[in-house]
Specification:
Blueprint: E1 11-17, E2 20-25, E3 31-33, H1 44-55, H2 60-67, H3 71-85
Antiparallel strand pairs: 1-2, 2-3
Helix pairs in contact: 2-3
Length: about 90
Amino acid sequence: MQCPRCQSTAISKNGFRGSKQNHRCRDCGRQFIETPQTHRGYSDDVRELCLKMYLNGMGFRAIERVTEIHHTTIISWVKLSEAALEEPKS
């Protein structure tokens, strides 16, 4: 096993993160898990669907019941999309 930062093989075990073994590089001090989770978050299609539901008048909790995505996540997506649509004031 190699350190993802410096490619060193001087690795020691350093407890657990969740249920996975955490490792620490002796050379650079970086902590890492051997096989990190590669898929995180929701796809763009799911986000787009939730935003369309919101724009069509569905409430956040109604969207949560249909899609099984927490309403605070949907609220943050709406806020991000509003910020992206705002034009800079001149």
